[in-house]
Amino acid sequence: MATTTASTTHRLRRVFVWELPVRVYHWLNALTIIVLCVTGYFIGNPPALMSQTEASFRYLFGTIRFLHFAAAYLFFFNFAFRIYWGFVGNKYADWKNFIPTNKKYFKEIWEVLKIDIFLKKEREHMSVGHNALAGFIYFLTFIAFLVQCITGFGLYASMSTWWFADLFVWAGHLFGGDFALRNIHHAAMWFFILFTIVHVYLVFYHDYVEGRGEISSMGGGWKFIEEDSFKKQREEDQKS
């Protein structure tokens, strides 16, 4: 396959990047975060709804809390599965893509920042899967996931009858009580909202700048990579 611009012609190779478990994790994670943020906002800031209907008949906040707790369990086990897949998945899902381990990683972060902030378009391709900046941000996001799970289940432990939530009863003592847990949990919600906005923008921007199928790759798993860039990446992988 070849694409032609005003001055150059690029030969592209179709590369399978995102395995099915990674794609399922991504969309399931997106769905649970939306449900958790919406229901969590109403739990933290309940609206004053006036109604003549008996409260036990409406059960509005009972439903909201159920959706929140159900999404929380799904979010946690989906997150645990992604950590597992970071050790058994292909090289694009590998956990080493998320943690800076050498100077090359930091150099690529700087190059991506120049693309994202200074809108620099004349650059060489740096990675087939996650670029270094995205990988590092996802690593920080994983830490936020962990904090959100600990604080959330720590709050839930006092009202849950299942042994799993009781495993987090220590969180209240560690963070200084339920009041502190709620504040941290609520602040993390806004972090996820901000992250989602920036994430969606950068996905569309990189898809526009690079033209490699960034958006569609999380649906079908395939990207289109310049032949020269692919060969260079494969040579680097063989050396390492």
Structure write-up:
The chain is built from ten helices and three strands, in the order ββαααααααααβα. The protein is elongated and about 65 Å long. It has a three-stranded antiparallel beta sheet. α1 (20-44) runs antiparallel to α3 (60-88). By secondary structure, the protein is mainly alpha-helical. The protein has helices at 20-44, 55-58, 60-88, 103-116, 132-156, 163-166, 170-175, 178-210, 214-220, 227-239; strands spanning 2-4, 9-16, 222-226. The protein has a single domain, classed as Transmembrane di-heme cytochromes, Chain C (Fumarate Reductase Cytochrome B subunit, Up-down Bundle), CATH 1.20.950.20.
Mean pLDDT, to the nearest integer, reads: 85
The unreliable regions are: none
Rounded to the nearest angstrom, the distance between the terminal CA atoms is: 29 Å
What spatial form do the alpha-carbon principal axes imply? elongated
Strand order of the largest sheet: 1-2-3
- Secondary-structure-derived class: mainly alpha
CATH superfamily: Transmembrane di-heme cytochromes, Chain C
| Amount of beta strand | 5-15%
Keywords for this structure?
240 residues, mainly alpha, 3-stranded antiparallel β-sheet, 10 helices, elongated
Draw up the topology in text:
Elements (H helix, E strand, L loop, with lengths): L1 E3 L4 E8 L3 H25 L10 H4 L1 H29 L14 H14 L15 H25 L6 H4 L3 H6 L2 H33 L3 H7 L1 E5 H13 L1
Antiparallel strand pairs: 1-2, 2-3
Helix pairs in contact: 1-3, 1-8, 3-5, 5-8
